[in-house]
Design brief:
about 80 residues; elongated; 4 helices
Length: about 80
């Protein structure tokens, strides 16, 4: 299928996986950007996501109902109680 015109047109759109973790630069570009490996980039991205996370806001009744549902499922799975978060 690689010779098909449609494949060439759609390839960049369909196969493009932008990510701050995956580096598709050349070796020279990678070295000029600091030479971080995938693990280092992933670690930095996780730190960024955690530091910017805001938990969703819920009304009191919604929160209590969610806790009731999750607690019931935890007991059904053999847990005595949910861990503190």
């Amino acid at each position: 299928f690689l010779k098909q015109k449609m494949t060439r047109e759609l390839f960049r759109k369909e196969q493009h996986l932008p990510s701050e973790v995956i580096d598709r630069d050349s070796s020279r570009g990678w070295q000029q950007a600091g030479g971080d490996d995938t693990f280092q980039r992933a670690r930095a991205r996780v730190s960024e996501l955690i530091s910017s996370y805001l938990p969703p806001t819920r009304q009191g009744d919604e929160q209590k109902e969610l806790e009731r549902i999750v607690s019931a499922l935890a007991v059904k799975a053999g847990m005595d109680h949910l861990p503190c978060l």
